[in-house]
What we know:
Layout: H1 2-21, H2 23-66
Amino acid sequence: MLLSLYTGVQVWFQDFRTRAREEKGATAVEYALMVALIAAVIIVAVRLIGTNSTEKFNEVGDAVGGA
């Protein structure tokens, strides 16, 4: 049992190393990371702009309503 577990781990690790060396896999991972980073930046920017614009609209609405 221990020998089959050891052999299975060796085979899995060798397959992992082979896949890590492939260019296609590396570029796909790089693109996925870039898309995730861009999405995170867009979400943060939209939340900040949304909060700031809500405050400005409320400020203008109060100014117009008070006039």
